[in-house]
Amino acid sequence: MKVLIVGAGISGLSAAIGLRRAGHETILLDKSSLSHEVGAAIHVQPNASRILLSWGFNTERARFVTATSGLFASAKDLKPIDEQFFNHIESEYGAKFYYSHRVDLHEELMRLATGEEGEGIPARLRNRAEVVKYNTEAGSVTLKDGSTLSADLIIGADGVHSAAVKEVVGFDNPAIPTGVTCLRTLIPVKDILDDEECADLMRGSEGKACYYVMGRSRVIWYPCRGNEILNVAIMCPDIEKLDAVEGKLSRKSHSSSSLLLYNTNSLLPTGWNIPIDNSVFLNEARDYHPSLRALLRFLFFSFSPLRQLTKTSKAPEVKLWKLLFRAPLPTWHKGRLVIIGDAAHPMLPYQGQAGAQAIEDGLALGLLFSHLPDHSSPSPPLPSSSSPLSPSSSSSSSPSANNHPQFTHSTPPITPTTLEQRLQSFEKVRRNRASAMQMFSNAGQDEAERVRESARPYVEEGVRVPSNPKEYIEYNFRHDVRKACEQELRKIGVVSTEV
């Protein structure tokens, strides 16, 4: 089977890996001129790390940090609310819980998807390939340059703003602002440990995540990149009165009485990687415990009251991520088009499961499109209806090496009936699981009562709806998408599922 994957982020690469291992030929289309991920850090929980390890993912090369514990405490007085220790995670759930820099995770996924080593045909990457039109019945996409590419299956994996969503559901269904903003940055752990005022908060914190909460505002930090970098974020109500100044967002005026609301009429940049003036970040933490404010002051200005900014110190770059929500969709596919990852199930970061759900999607696609019936002899490569595209001479992740790849291998075809059957199976396995996680992700694990009823319709019958951090860990980590796929394949008459 020949597959076009629109988007080369975590979900697109995971799909490429899963389908490669099932014997299919894939081409990744990414509108970016780059071949790497952007962003900060990410949780890789056991339901995802089990999958990565089965694919041959090298956690040492990716500089993963093993998670040791998670502390929930009051941001006002630092009193503990709940603490979970993770020393049992690997024995209980079959894999470790990790923290990762998104770039490190992405680079290793890219290697598994496009590298010469490994099972199946290496995926190939085409950059600067923006899709502007889909033909769901013909299985084709039109690029911004006017060229058209065809495949047996099209996968929309290009994020929350994907145009593929409208093609699938038949109407505009944009993600809407949640009223919550995430302000985030990365800073070397060594710099914090070298500061007398901040070092105590960080000593003995290798592998530890901290969640300091106060109402709907919270500060979160955890290490990544071999415990050398600390990922720090503040979740707070949306911020208004922001102007774009020298490429960054800054406040027009300061308020000492309340958090400011985001002005939806302002013509500000959109996205999740927007630079922001550091004073905005610190202002949102003004009611936190003094020692917590001292750490944040250090983080976002590179000085504390006891230390002046020096020529060698550098304030880290703070980014704004405006959190968006879209309700679960009634379907994920139409004709030869299916959507996955944030295109299908965007979710807020409170459960740390967005990346894991994308990885689950990738494994499910590979398993559910394995062992296809042999209807005829292998089909020839599908031609492009545009000018001929030169096949790549290498499967490297370098954009120059894969500038205009085309399908070059003869692969067994798939009938429309089999395609529809397997896509229906994919939705049976994945849609309720990811939809439940969407709803759970609207609140922190310490706020379960806020989302229990909205998530309940998507939770498997007989399964307890989580009500506290310990139960969330069980629900999130225990799920075995491989087992779910094997059960579904047996239902449709396929027994062997070794992929």
Could you please describe the fold and organization of this structure?
The chain has 499 residues and is α+β, with helices and mostly antiparallel strands. It has 2 domains: 296 residues, FAD/NAD(P)-binding domain (3-Layer(bba) Sandwich); 149 residues, no CATH class. 29% of the residues lie in helices and 22% in strands. It has 15 helices and 22 strands. The strands form 5 sheets. Strands 6-5-14-15-16-13-20-19 form an 8-stranded mixed β-sheet. Strands 8-2-1-12-22-21 form a 6-stranded mixed β-sheet. Strand 15 and strand 16 form a beta hairpin. The longest helix is centred in the C-terminal third of the chain and has 25 residues. The chain is globular, with a radius of gyration of 23 Å. The two termini are 15 Å apart.
The third-level CATH topology of the largest domain is FAD/NAD(P)-binding domain
User: What's the pLDDT, averaged over the residues?
Assistant: 83
Quickly name the level 1 CATH class of the largest domain: Alpha Beta
Helix amount, in percent? 25-40%
Sheet with the most strands, sense and barrel status: 8 strands, mixed
Task: Enumerate how many helices there are, as a single number.
Answer: 15
Give the overall form.
Answer: globular
The assigned CATH architecture of the largest domain is 3-Layer(bba) Sandwich
Number of domains: 2
Could you name the ranges where pLDDT drops below 50 across 5 or more consecutive residues?
A: 241-270, 302-313, 379-402
Number of strands: 22
- Proportion of β residues? 15-25%
Secondary structure class reads alpha+beta
Q: Can you identify the CATH superfamily of the largest domain?
A: FAD/NAD(P)-binding domain
Q: Strand order of the main beta sheet, please?
A: 6-5-14-15-16-13-20-19
Q: What distance separates the N and C termini?
A: 15 Å
What is the C-alpha radius of gyration, as a whole number of Å? 23 Å
